[in-house]
Specification:
This protein is of the alpha/beta class and 263 residues long. Helix content is 21%, strand content 32%. Helix 3 runs parallel beside helix 4. The protein is elongated, with a radius of gyration of 21 Å.
Length: 263
């Protein structure tokens, strides 16, 4: 999971520093783009940022109380300036088709379409999340990390397969309930890059199960079924996380299949 964090320094710099520290712990610093440390001195800012957006799995747009109303030295709205880096980042992220999650902090409200230039108005259609302030901040970041497919706070004491899919799982992860074309249901749980699935037949009995890891955007799992067959399953999220294209690889050959998300 690669994450890009967009924010306005004069609006939410302190909050973003705390947020990125937690994201680093959950996903690794190399997978979290934070401009203060991810853009090297003397490098091409626009090229670096644009490349990071297009290679990220999720873009977090951190919105504080003055994010949309901030003005420059001449009194002009920053978002109306074509050279405003924040507006440029968000516009590029919207155009990229990547998952974009507005994060509301410090009691900020979601901007209305009237608050935004035309190129950014689709931001108001994206489902966001509010990060709490004070002592509740850490808990709300825990929730965000889990929605992004990161480890839960109880992960160290919990083995994979000991829970059902989370209802808060985001469509950027494999976690969820999935239905195959023959009506069968598959439960997938994901903690970080560790993945497990359990498939059930029409009577609710486990027909197959497997576990593996997410590698390069694919989930690769070794599996066995109720008849003793063993093999490998390769899963790929498509259509903005609503479907999975898969391959079943056994000694008998390769079979393609697909599943539709049911959560």
């Amino acid at each position: 999971m690669k994450i890009f964090v967009s924010y306005r320094r004069e609006d939410t710099q302190d909050v973003v520093s705390r947020l990125c520290s937690r994201l680093d712990d959950a996903f690794g610093p190399r997978n979290v783009f934070h401009d203060e440390r991810s853009v090297g001195t003397g490098t091409d800012f626009l090229g670096t940022v644009g490349g990071a957006i297009y290679t990220s799995d999720a873009i977090l747009v951190v919105i504080g109380r003055t994010w949309a109303s901030c003005r420059d030295a001449r009194g002009r709205l920053r978002l109306d300036d074509s050279d405003d880096p924040v507006g440029w980042e968000v516009g590029l992220a919207l155009a990229s088709g990547r998952v974009l999650i507005p994060l509301l902090v410090d009691g900020a409200s979601m901007p209305t379409k009237g608050d935004l230039p035309r190129k950014l108005r689709d931001l108001t259609t994206r489902s966001g999340l509010r990060l709490a302030t004070g002592s509740a901040f850490e808990g709300s970041v825990d929730d965000l990390i889990q929605r992004l497919g990161g480890p839960s706070p109880q992960r160290a004491a919990q083995t994979l397969g000991s829970r059902s899919p989370r209802g808060t799982a985001a469509w950027t992860t494999f976690e969820g309930y999935w239905q195959t074309r023959d009506g069968g249901m598959t439960e997938i749980t994901q903690d970080g890059d560790s993945v497990e699935f359990n498939g059930k037949d029409g009577s609710g009995q486990v027909a197959y199960q497997g576990r593996g890891r997410v590698q390069g955007g694919q989930a690769i799992l070794d599996f066995t079924n109720s008849l003793g067959m063993r093999g490998r399953v390769v899963l790929q999220l498509v259509q903005n996380g609503g479907y999975i294209n898969g391959q079943l690889q056994t000694a008998m050959g390769v079979v393609a299949f697909d599943m539709m998300r049911r959560t």
